[in-house]
Amino acid sequence: LKIEGEVEVKGNVTIDDATITVTENGTLTLSENEFGRATVLRSAGGSLVGPVTRQIVLPATPNRNMSTVEQRIAIGLEGVKVSELVGDIPTWGFVGADDPAGFANIGYWSANADFNYAIIQSTEDVLPVWEGVYLALAPAESYTLQFTGTMPSSDLTLDIPGDAFTALLGNATNANLDLNVISEQLGANKVGLDCWNINTLQYDHYVDGLNTNGLNGTLQPNTTCQFLPSGANTLTLPITGHLPNGTEANPTTDLDGKIVFSAENASGYRDETVIAIREGASVGFLASEDAINTSSLYSACDLYVLDDSNERMGISQISFENTDSVFFELMLGAN
């Protein structure tokens, strides 16, 4: 199949044992619908050849008293230059930006950069495919990013050094991704994943099938997650075997009980924190069982529990096998 005109995919396209080629005169744009970002599923050797355009709408209304709005995305396409973002968002701090003065408002995670944060130098810089991209945006209702590259044609790998300050990676499959694909590879470095919510402008949590704020163990295309490595690891992101637009992975959890606390402010910003009772769980904080609350104390709505060791947790797993009671403070940070 050849695309020689303009095609916009809002839902899903499945390519099974076939090739779709976007010609020089054709355009294929992946946008979104009410279920989320458009997806491309490839199976039985199916491939998508030629330029593909991804369209992403990013809210940019501050949820706290800040002069800029933080967003995080993954590009998910190969060969995308920074110049693709100029004109979609205000840019500053690098050669070719709207304003070349100041600290660059675009950066990305890199294993080799100081504090794992690579700073953009020029519009000619090529953005990474699945390492997370940091954006500082001038406040506005929203921005629409539109960038063009090619689909990754083979599985992606990412080496994370043991001394990494943090790791920020994203869903570069161009399909909905079951978070277990990532978490099951962490092995001895298993920790909770914090996944960026573009609407609340803070992180949702995922660990052991438990999640907050409707994350449900599913990453939409271009969504990012971070974790704090405790050792070197190599992660592989397959480009096949994922989920279409409108479909979610629903992790099963074997629990003895669960308590979900929720808060919402007058502006509609909300947050959750979860206490789960699971046989064999520890009572104190354990990185492989519990999710550290990584949001700011100055968020519009940031809910978490605080244990007697002053550990801030978005998800806490406990057991009453060796104790009769566990004490938590329920904390709410808001402005």
Protein described:
The chain is 1% helix and 41% strand. It is globular and about 70 Å long. It has one helix spanning 180-183; strands at 2-3, 6-9, 12-16, 19-22, 27-30, 32-33, 36-37, 39-43, 47-49, 52-59, 69-73, 106-109, 117-119, 133-137, 142-149, 156-160, 167-170, 177-178, 193-197, 202-207, 210-211, 218-219, 224-227, 233-237, 257-264, 270-277, 291-292, 301-306, 312-318, 329-334. With 335 residues, it is mainly beta. The mean pLDDT is 93. Strands 25, 26, 27, 28, 29 and 30 form a six-stranded mixed sheet that branches. Strands 17-23-19-20-21 form a five-stranded antiparallel sheet, with no helix packed on it. The chain has one helix and 30 strands.
Task: Tell me the number of helical segments per DSSP (H or I, 4 or more residues long).
Answer: 1
Report how far apart the termini are: 53 Å
Overall geometric form: globular
Largest beta sheet, briefly? Answer: 6 strands, mixed
Runs with pLDDT <50, length 5+? Answer: none
Radius of gyration of CA atoms, rounded to a whole number: 20 Å
Total strands: the figure is 30
The percent range for strand residues is 35-45%
**Estimated helix fraction:** under 10%
Secondary-structure-derived class: mainly beta
In round numbers, the mean pLDDT is 93
